[in-house]
């Protein structure tokens, strides 16, 4: 975390993370900037750009090739700021808060659970589907598919009909965030696959398992223009549109056209 101070008091903060990722088929380090905050009354006085510039210097000192961030599409001041600092928007995601009760009444098949860390072959098949994405973590298997207490992976589920299939992995980070699972009934989802004309019915099978476990909401980021996003958006209680922005550091090459990986840990 970086801080801005005045007379010994903190007036701004900038949070940072660093990950080994793959971009353009090459392994590199990428910084991730989040939770840039400036005290009310001191905004629009250059503190935000100063904090981001400091974040860029920190990332370069760590030999990072890129600095990335997620910004709401409705946050015009922040988008104007990062654009002026040389960031480019390379993707847009819709972060869906699915209200699982809205799937009631959809005929659905039985869902089957898999624990990928116990099935190396199946894990490799799922990893092959995302390795071509830019900014996919190099150590994805360890970082996202480790169960408690080492990780927050809570299993994967699949369901099939004659004409559709659905696959989903769950990340349950409620305890690590200081939330009580008994009262906070939402978990995160990633590694989504929807196929066929009956994909929604198959997905409803996954929803049934989650609801039986007491989950009421599912948080899932999806590419804004994707078929999955269009299919599931009508069941969302809230949709947060976000731009994925990237700043090239040093002589790093531009990010080539292609899918961007949304790291659910963010």
Please give a structural write-up.
- The chain is α+β, with helices and mostly antiparallel strands.
- The chain folds into two domains: 98 residues, Gcn5-related N-acetyltransferase (GNAT) (Aminopeptidase); 145 residues, 3-Layer(aba) Sandwich (Aminopeptidase).
- Helices cover 22% and strands 40% of the residues.
- The chain contains six helices and twelve strands.
- α1 links the parallel β3 and β4.
- It is globular.
What is shown here, in short?
With 266 residues, this protein is α+β, with helices and mostly antiparallel strands. It is built from six helices and twelve strands. The protein has two domains: 2-92 and 242-248, Gcn5-related N-acetyltransferase (GNAT) (Aminopeptidase, 3-Layer(aba) Sandwich), CATH 3.40.630; 96-240, Gcn5-related N-acetyltransferase (GNAT) (Aminopeptidase, 3-Layer(aba) Sandwich).
Q: How many beta-strand runs?
A: 12
Low-confidence parts, pLDDT < 50 over ≥5 residues?
none
Secondary-structure class: alpha+beta
Proper CATH architecture of the largest domain: 3-Layer(aba) Sandwich
How many distinct folded domains?
2
* Total count of helical runs of at least 4 residues: 6
Instruction: Calculate Rg over CA atoms.
Output: 20 Å
Query: What would CATH call the class of the largest domain?
Result: Alpha Beta
Give the DSSP E fraction (strand runs of 2 or more residues).
35-45%
Instruction: Quote the distance from N terminus to C terminus.
Output: 15 Å
Topology-level CATH name of the largest domain: Aminopeptidase
What's the CATH H-level homologous superfamily of the largest domain? Answer: Gcn5-related N-acetyltransferase (GNAT)
Shape: globular
Estimate the helix proportion, in percent.
10-25%
Return the string of H and E elements. Answer: EEEHEHEEHEHEEEHEHE
The average pLDDT value, as a whole number, equals 91
């Amino acid at each position: 975390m970086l801080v801005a101070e005045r007379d010994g008091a903190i007036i701004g903060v900038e949070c940072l993370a660093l990950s080994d990722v793959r971009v353009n088929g090459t392994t590199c380090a990428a910084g991730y900037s989040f939770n840039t905050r400036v005290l009310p009354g001191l905004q629009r006085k250059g503190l935000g750009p100063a904090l981001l510039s400091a974040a860029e210097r920190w990332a370069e000192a760590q030999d990072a090739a890129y600095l990335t961030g997620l910004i709401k599409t409705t946050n015009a001041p922040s988008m104007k700021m990062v654009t002026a600092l040389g960031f480019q928007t390379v993707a847009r995601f819709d972060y869906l808060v699915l209200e699982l009760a809205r799937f009631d009444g959809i005929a659905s098949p039985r869902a089957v659970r898999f624990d990928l860390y116990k099935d190396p072959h199946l894990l490799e098949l799922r990893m092959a589907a995302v390795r071509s994405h830019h900014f996919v973590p190099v150590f994805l298997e360890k970082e996202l598919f480790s169960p408690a207490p080492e990780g927050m992976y809570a299993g994967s589920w699949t369901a099939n009909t004659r004409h559709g299939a659905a696959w989903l992995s769950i990340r349950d980070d409620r305890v690590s965030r200081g939330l009580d699972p008994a009262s906070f009934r939402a978990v995160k989802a990633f590694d989504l696959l929807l196929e066929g004309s009956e994909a929604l019915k198959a997905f409803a099978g996954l929803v049934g398992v989650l609801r039986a476990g007491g989950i009421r909401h599912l948080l899932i980021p999806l590419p804004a223009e994707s078929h999955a996003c269009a299919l599931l958006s009508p069941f969302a209680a809230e949709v947060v549109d976000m731009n994925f922005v990237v700043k090239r550091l040093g002589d790093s090459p531009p990010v080539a056209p292609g899918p961007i990986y949304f790291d659910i840990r963010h």
